[in-house]
Amino acid sequence: MSKKEKGLKGSSDYAELLRGKTVLITGGTGSFGKNFSHHLLDTYDIKKLIIFSRDELKQFEMQKTFTDDRVRFLVGDVRDLSRLQRTFRDVDIVVHAAALKQVPAMEYNPQEAIKTNINGSQNVIDAAIDQGVEKLLLISTDKAAQPVNLYGASKLCAEKLFVASNAYSGNLRIGAVRYGNVIGSRGSIIETILKNRDAKEVYLTHPDMSRFWITLPQSFELVLFALSNMEGGELFVPKVPSMTVKEIFDSLTPKASQKITGIRPGEKLHEILLTSQEARRGYDLGGYFVTLPEFSFAGRDLEKYKDLGKSLDQYFEYTSDNKEKWLSNKDLIELVEGYKII
To answer: What CATH number does the domain containing 165 carry?
Structure first.
């Protein structure tokens, strides 16, 4: 098969991927789930969309934004395997976005992070395998790379579970995506700033602290790219810009005085999306990086990336203080002008 025939699939291929499919999103009432749901329904000819989450109030509020009869809302918790087994019946694609994410809360309630982010992820895997799901994708975070807090460590465990499960998943393809802060997500620092743009004083932890920034549409594109191209066992990482926290405040609240509070427990000065250890098994695919599993799995054509991508230097790291892709003040202002949370 030629390189062209094995080429990476892009946006023109997503319609075929989703046509006539039943898609389920765990944690579907979160910022990603809500917005991705509208994107799927508005853009693709899917058969059914199932929103699975444990918060009936958020589901009730989310239902008000839909008039599409392809949508179903199911209350349940990823900690409950039997509920997942019933819910995944006749589902083709599962996007696993459910997680406990608040760093301070997870440090104070560690067992809850383990029950949801680790045990819950294993339940999702088991139910997907048992019910004959075709594709399963984990939404992970930059905090899973060289984690320094329990939330990041629990998401790293979830990544490892998803990758390793390809050893016994049969025809089910299982992979993961990892990205940083989302511009426009509920509870994000940018949302908080925009709600308080007239503040005379603002608080930031460290003037040099940097973070990766991705828009919601970019996260949708990443997920669809991964679902279209994954063989099973890959971790996909987007090439996205970075910006310091101070630059965000300088852009959005230029007249406010800034008070430095210091880095909080469990925080990094800079985030990392791809470690040097992972880069040894990684490839540059143009708009994305992909890192492959350390073990081979039967029926997974992971060798294709040798033809389709460029291997990464063994010392390469993708960190948020890398100035190659930097978000300018003007870029940020242009992004937030169209800022909207559905």
So the answer is: 3.40.50.720
